Protein backbone atom coordinates (compact mmCIF):
# COMPACT_ATOMS: atom_id res chain seq x y z
CA UNK A 1 0.00 0.00 0.00
CA UNK A 2 1.34 3.38 -0.96
CA UNK A 3 2.19 5.58 1.98
CA UNK A 4 0.43 8.94 1.82
CA UNK A 5 2.39 12.13 1.36
CA UNK A 6 1.13 13.46 4.69
CA UNK A 7 2.30 10.33 6.49
CA UNK A 8 5.76 10.64 4.96
CA UNK A 9 5.77 14.31 5.90
CA UNK A 10 4.92 13.43 9.48
CA UNK A 11 7.78 10.94 9.68
CA UNK A 12 10.24 13.46 8.28
CA UNK A 13 8.92 16.17 10.60
CA UNK A 14 9.48 13.86 13.58
CA UNK A 15 13.07 13.25 12.52
CA UNK A 16 13.65 16.94 11.80
CA UNK A 17 12.24 18.00 15.17
CA UNK A 18 14.37 15.47 17.06
CA UNK A 19 17.48 16.65 15.22
CA UNK A 20 16.78 20.33 15.90
CA UNK A 21 16.17 19.70 19.60
CA UNK A 22 19.38 17.66 19.85
CA UNK A 23 21.30 20.51 18.21
CA UNK A 24 19.72 23.05 20.58
CA UNK A 25 20.89 21.08 23.61
CA UNK A 26 24.37 20.73 22.11
CA UNK A 27 24.63 24.46 21.41
CA UNK A 28 23.57 25.27 24.97
CA UNK A 29 26.45 23.30 26.45
CA UNK A 30 28.95 24.65 23.90
CA UNK A 31 27.98 28.22 24.77
CA UNK A 32 28.60 27.86 28.49
CA UNK A 33 30.81 30.84 29.40
CA UNK A 34 34.08 29.85 31.06
CA UNK A 35 36.26 32.72 32.27
CA UNK A 36 39.98 32.05 32.69
CA UNK A 37 42.15 34.83 34.14
CA UNK A 38 45.89 34.27 34.52
CA UNK A 39 45.35 30.54 34.38
CA UNK A 40 42.64 30.59 37.05
CA UNK A 41 39.11 29.45 36.29
CA UNK A 42 36.20 31.40 37.74
CA UNK A 43 34.52 28.39 39.34
CA UNK A 44 31.65 30.42 40.79
CA UNK A 45 30.61 31.56 37.32
CA UNK A 46 31.28 28.10 35.89
CA UNK A 47 29.03 26.29 38.37
CA UNK A 48 26.36 28.97 38.03
CA UNK A 49 26.46 28.53 34.27
CA UNK A 50 26.28 24.75 34.55
CA UNK A 51 23.30 25.07 36.89
CA UNK A 52 21.43 27.29 34.45
CA UNK A 53 22.35 24.92 31.61
CA UNK A 54 20.89 21.97 33.55
CA UNK A 55 17.66 23.91 34.02
CA UNK A 56 17.48 24.82 30.33
CA UNK A 57 18.24 21.21 29.46
CA UNK A 58 15.29 20.09 31.61
CA UNK A 59 13.09 22.69 29.92
CA UNK A 60 14.01 21.55 26.40
CA UNK A 61 13.96 17.84 27.28
CA UNK A 62 10.53 18.17 28.88
CA UNK A 63 9.20 19.88 25.76
CA UNK A 64 10.76 17.17 23.59
CA UNK A 65 8.98 14.54 25.68
CA UNK A 66 5.63 16.31 25.40
CA UNK A 67 6.24 16.87 21.68
CA UNK A 68 6.95 13.16 21.15
CA UNK A 69 3.80 12.10 23.03
CA UNK A 70 1.63 14.56 21.09
CA UNK A 71 2.95 13.59 17.65
CA UNK A 72 2.90 9.88 18.43
CA UNK A 73 -0.90 10.07 18.60
CA UNK A 74 -1.28 10.87 14.89
CA UNK A 75 -0.15 9.18 11.69
CA UNK A 76 -0.48 12.15 9.36
CA UNK A 77 -0.15 15.91 9.76
CA UNK A 78 -1.67 18.72 7.66
CA UNK A 79 0.31 21.76 6.58
CA UNK A 80 -1.15 23.86 9.40
CA UNK A 81 0.50 21.64 12.01
CA UNK A 82 3.78 21.59 10.08
CA UNK A 83 3.89 25.40 10.11
CA UNK A 84 3.09 25.58 13.83
CA UNK A 85 5.74 22.99 14.59
CA UNK A 86 8.34 24.97 12.66
CA UNK A 87 7.39 28.12 14.59
CA UNK A 88 7.71 26.14 17.83
CA UNK A 89 11.18 24.91 16.82
CA UNK A 90 12.18 28.43 15.76
CA UNK A 91 11.32 29.81 19.19
CA UNK A 92 12.92 26.86 20.94
CA UNK A 93 16.14 27.40 18.98
CA UNK A 94 16.47 30.82 20.65
CA UNK A 95 16.80 29.15 24.05
CA UNK A 96 20.63 28.79 23.91
CA UNK A 97 21.12 32.48 23.14
CA UNK A 98 18.85 33.77 25.89
CA UNK A 99 20.21 31.18 28.32
CA UNK A 100 23.72 32.49 27.64
CA UNK A 101 22.63 36.11 28.05
CA UNK A 102 20.92 35.37 31.34
CA UNK A 103 23.95 33.40 32.53
CA UNK A 104 26.41 36.16 31.72
CA UNK A 105 24.35 39.04 33.06
CA UNK A 106 21.38 38.39 35.34
CA UNK A 107 19.52 41.68 35.04
CA UNK A 108 15.87 42.52 34.47
CA UNK A 109 16.18 42.68 30.69
CA UNK A 110 17.78 39.25 30.25
CA UNK A 111 15.51 37.50 32.75
CA UNK A 112 12.38 39.10 31.30
CA UNK A 113 13.47 38.14 27.78
CA UNK A 114 14.01 34.56 28.91
CA UNK A 115 10.60 34.53 30.59
CA UNK A 116 8.91 35.98 27.51
CA UNK A 117 10.51 33.32 25.34
CA UNK A 118 9.43 30.67 27.85
CA UNK A 119 5.84 31.94 27.64
CA UNK A 120 5.84 32.07 23.83
CA UNK A 121 7.23 28.55 23.52
CA UNK A 122 4.66 27.15 25.95
CA UNK A 123 1.86 29.03 24.18
CA UNK A 124 2.79 27.85 20.69
CA UNK A 125 3.23 24.29 21.88
CA UNK A 126 -0.13 24.42 23.63
CA UNK A 127 -1.77 25.46 20.36
CA UNK A 128 0.15 22.76 18.49
CA UNK A 129 -0.88 20.08 20.98
CA UNK A 130 -4.52 21.16 20.74
CA UNK A 131 -4.45 20.79 16.96
CA UNK A 132 -2.91 17.33 17.22
CA UNK A 133 -5.41 16.17 19.83
CA UNK A 134 -8.37 17.48 17.83
CA UNK A 135 -6.97 15.85 14.72
CA UNK A 136 -6.98 12.46 16.42
CA UNK A 137 -10.02 12.57 18.71
CA UNK A 138 -13.53 13.94 18.59
CA UNK A 139 -14.94 12.98 21.99
CA UNK A 140 -14.02 14.96 25.08
CA UNK A 141 -13.16 11.93 27.21
CA UNK A 142 -10.38 10.77 24.89
CA UNK A 143 -9.19 14.35 24.41
CA UNK A 144 -8.89 14.74 28.15
CA UNK A 145 -6.88 11.54 28.45
CA UNK A 146 -4.57 12.68 25.68
CA UNK A 147 -3.98 16.03 27.35
CA UNK A 148 -3.18 14.17 30.55
CA UNK A 149 -0.68 12.03 28.67
CA UNK A 150 1.03 15.15 27.33
CA UNK A 151 0.89 17.42 30.36
CA UNK A 152 0.25 15.04 33.23
CA UNK A 153 -1.89 16.62 35.93
CA UNK A 154 -0.56 20.13 35.40
CA UNK A 155 -2.99 23.02 35.11
CA UNK A 156 -1.69 24.87 32.05
CA UNK A 157 -3.82 27.94 32.75
CA UNK A 158 -2.17 28.23 36.13
CA UNK A 159 1.23 27.62 34.53
CA UNK A 160 0.79 30.52 32.09
CA UNK A 161 -0.36 32.76 34.93
CA UNK A 162 2.69 31.78 36.96
CA UNK A 163 5.08 32.56 34.10
CA UNK A 164 3.47 35.98 33.57
CA UNK A 165 3.76 36.72 37.28
CA UNK A 166 7.45 35.79 37.30
CA UNK A 167 8.09 38.01 34.26
CA UNK A 168 6.59 40.94 36.15
CA UNK A 169 8.63 39.99 39.22
CA UNK A 170 11.78 40.00 37.07
CA UNK A 171 11.30 43.71 36.43
CA UNK A 172 11.75 44.44 40.13
CA UNK A 173 13.75 41.45 41.40
CA UNK A 174 15.51 39.71 38.50
CA UNK A 175 17.58 37.35 40.64
CA UNK A 176 14.54 36.15 42.57
CA UNK A 177 12.67 35.66 39.29
CA UNK A 178 15.64 33.70 37.98
CA UNK A 179 15.30 31.28 40.90
CA UNK A 180 11.66 30.66 39.99
CA UNK A 181 12.59 30.12 36.35
CA UNK A 182 15.12 27.57 37.58
CA UNK A 183 12.59 25.69 39.69
CA UNK A 184 9.73 25.38 37.18
CA UNK A 185 11.51 23.39 34.42
CA UNK A 186 13.14 20.96 36.85
CA UNK A 187 9.87 20.32 38.63
CA UNK A 188 8.02 19.91 35.33
CA UNK A 189 10.70 17.59 33.95
CA UNK A 190 10.48 15.09 36.79
CA UNK A 191 6.76 15.33 37.52
CA UNK A 192 5.87 14.90 33.85
CA UNK A 193 7.81 11.63 33.62
CA UNK A 194 6.24 10.44 36.85
CA UNK A 195 2.75 11.45 35.76
CA UNK A 196 3.21 9.65 32.45
CA UNK A 197 4.09 6.45 34.27
CA UNK A 198 1.04 6.89 36.48
CA UNK A 199 -1.18 7.41 33.43
CA UNK A 200 0.08 4.14 31.96
CA UNK A 201 -0.68 2.41 35.23
CA UNK A 202 -4.11 4.00 35.56
CA UNK A 203 -4.97 2.90 32.03
CA UNK A 204 -5.09 -0.63 33.45
CA UNK A 205 -7.94 0.35 35.77
CA UNK A 206 -11.42 -0.97 34.87
CA UNK A 207 -13.59 1.40 32.84
CA UNK A 208 -15.74 2.44 35.81
CA UNK A 209 -12.63 3.22 37.82
CA UNK A 210 -11.20 5.26 34.95
CA UNK A 211 -14.44 7.23 34.75
CA UNK A 212 -14.26 7.97 38.46
CA UNK A 213 -10.66 9.09 38.04
CA UNK A 214 -11.46 11.28 35.01
CA UNK A 215 -14.18 13.06 36.97
CA UNK A 216 -11.76 14.11 39.70
CA UNK A 217 -10.34 17.59 39.90
CA UNK A 218 -6.66 18.07 39.09
CA UNK A 219 -5.83 18.32 42.80
CA UNK A 220 -7.70 15.10 43.58
CA UNK A 221 -5.97 13.28 40.73
CA UNK A 222 -2.60 14.26 42.13
CA UNK A 223 -3.69 13.25 45.61
CA UNK A 224 -5.00 9.88 44.42
CA UNK A 225 -1.85 9.21 42.39
CA UNK A 226 0.29 10.01 45.42
CA UNK A 227 -1.84 7.70 47.52
CA UNK A 228 -1.27 4.87 45.03
CA UNK A 229 2.48 5.44 45.07
CA UNK A 230 2.58 5.44 48.86
CA UNK A 231 0.54 2.26 49.01
CA UNK A 232 2.80 0.45 46.54
CA UNK A 233 5.92 1.64 48.37
CA UNK A 234 4.43 0.49 51.66
CA UNK A 235 3.64 -2.96 50.26
CA UNK A 236 7.18 -3.29 48.94
CA UNK A 237 8.56 -2.41 52.38
CA UNK A 238 6.26 -4.90 54.08
CA UNK A 239 7.48 -7.80 51.97
CA UNK A 240 5.69 -11.14 52.42
CA UNK A 241 3.83 -10.39 55.65
CA UNK A 242 0.29 -11.07 54.44
CA UNK A 243 -1.37 -9.69 57.56
CA UNK A 244 0.34 -6.33 57.17
CA UNK A 245 -0.34 -6.36 53.43
CA UNK A 246 -4.03 -6.90 54.11
CA UNK A 247 -4.06 -4.07 56.66
CA UNK A 248 -2.36 -1.74 54.16
CA UNK A 249 -4.86 -2.73 51.49
CA UNK A 250 -7.85 -2.18 53.77
CA UNK A 251 -6.61 1.29 54.63
CA UNK A 252 -5.99 2.16 50.97
CA UNK A 253 -9.35 0.79 49.75
CA UNK A 254 -11.23 2.63 52.50
CA UNK A 255 -9.59 5.96 51.63
CA UNK A 256 -10.16 5.42 47.89
CA UNK A 257 -13.86 4.81 48.57
CA UNK A 258 -14.34 7.66 51.01
CA UNK A 259 -12.28 10.35 49.32
CA UNK A 260 -12.50 9.49 45.63
CA UNK A 261 -15.60 7.31 45.21
CA UNK A 262 -13.58 4.43 43.76
CA UNK A 263 -15.00 1.21 45.14
CA UNK A 264 -12.89 -1.56 46.63
CA UNK A 265 -13.88 -3.91 43.82
CA UNK A 266 -12.68 -1.37 41.21
CA UNK A 267 -9.40 -0.84 43.05
CA UNK A 268 -8.94 -4.57 43.53
CA UNK A 269 -9.55 -5.30 39.84
CA UNK A 270 -7.13 -2.56 38.87
CA UNK A 271 -4.35 -3.87 41.12
CA UNK A 272 -4.71 -7.31 39.61
CA UNK A 273 -4.20 -5.76 36.18
CA UNK A 274 -1.41 -3.63 37.60
CA UNK A 275 0.46 -6.74 38.73
CA UNK A 276 0.17 -8.28 35.28
CA UNK A 277 1.28 -5.05 33.64
CA UNK A 278 4.11 -4.04 35.97
CA UNK A 279 5.31 -7.30 37.46
CA UNK A 280 4.40 -10.17 35.13
CA UNK A 281 6.78 -12.55 36.86
CA UNK A 282 5.93 -11.54 40.42
CA UNK A 283 2.14 -11.46 40.57
CA UNK A 284 1.80 -12.49 44.15
CA UNK A 285 4.62 -10.42 45.58
CA UNK A 286 3.15 -6.93 45.70
CA UNK A 287 -0.16 -7.53 47.38
CA UNK A 288 -2.90 -9.90 48.34
CA UNK A 289 -5.72 -7.44 48.46
CA UNK A 290 -8.70 -9.52 49.35
CA UNK A 291 -9.46 -13.09 50.18
CA UNK A 292 -12.49 -13.18 47.92
Description:
- This protein is mainly α.
- The protein folds into two domains: 5-191, I/LWEQ domain, CATH 1.20.1410; 207-278, no CATH class.
- The protein is built from twelve helices and two strands, in the order αββααααααααααα.
- The chain has helices at 5-30, 43-72, 79-92, 95-104, 108-136, 140-151, 156-172, 174-202, 207-214, 218-238, 242-260, 264-278, and strands at 36-37, 40-41.
- The chain has a two-stranded antiparallel sheet with strand order 1-2.
- A hairpin with a 2-residue loop joins strand 1 (36-37) and strand 2.
- Helix 3 runs antiparallel to helix 5 (108-136), helix 4 packs antiparallel against helix 5 and helix 5 (108-136) packs antiparallel against helix 6 (140-151).
- It is globular.
- Keywords: Ion channel, Ion transport, Membrane, Potassium, Potassium channel, Potassium transport, Transmembrane, Transmembrane helix, Transport.
- Its main location: membrane.
- It catalyses: K(+)(in) = K(+)(out).
- Belongs to the TMEM175 family.
- It is found in: Membrane.
Q: What's a quick, concise take on this entry?
A:
The chain is an all-alpha fold.
| CATH level-two architecture of the largest domain | Up-down Bundle
Structural class: mainly alpha
Number of strands: 2
Biggest sheet strand line-up:
1-2
Q: What are the secondary-structure elements, in order, as H or E?
A: HEEHHHHHHHHHHH
User: What's the helix count?
Assistant: 12
Number of domains: 2
Catalytic activity: K(+)(in) = K(+)(out)
Protein name: DUF1211 domain-containing protein
Membrane topology: Multi-pass membrane protein
Pfam families: TMEM175
Amino acid sequence: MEVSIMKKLKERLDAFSDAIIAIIITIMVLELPVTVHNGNVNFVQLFQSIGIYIVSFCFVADLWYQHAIAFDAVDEVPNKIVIKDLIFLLLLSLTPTLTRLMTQDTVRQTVMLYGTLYLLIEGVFRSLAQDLVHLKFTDKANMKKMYQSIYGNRDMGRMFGMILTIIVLAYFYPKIALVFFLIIPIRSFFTNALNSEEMQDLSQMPIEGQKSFDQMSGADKRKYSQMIRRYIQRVHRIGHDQEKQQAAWNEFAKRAQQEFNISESQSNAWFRQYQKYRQPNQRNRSSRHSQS
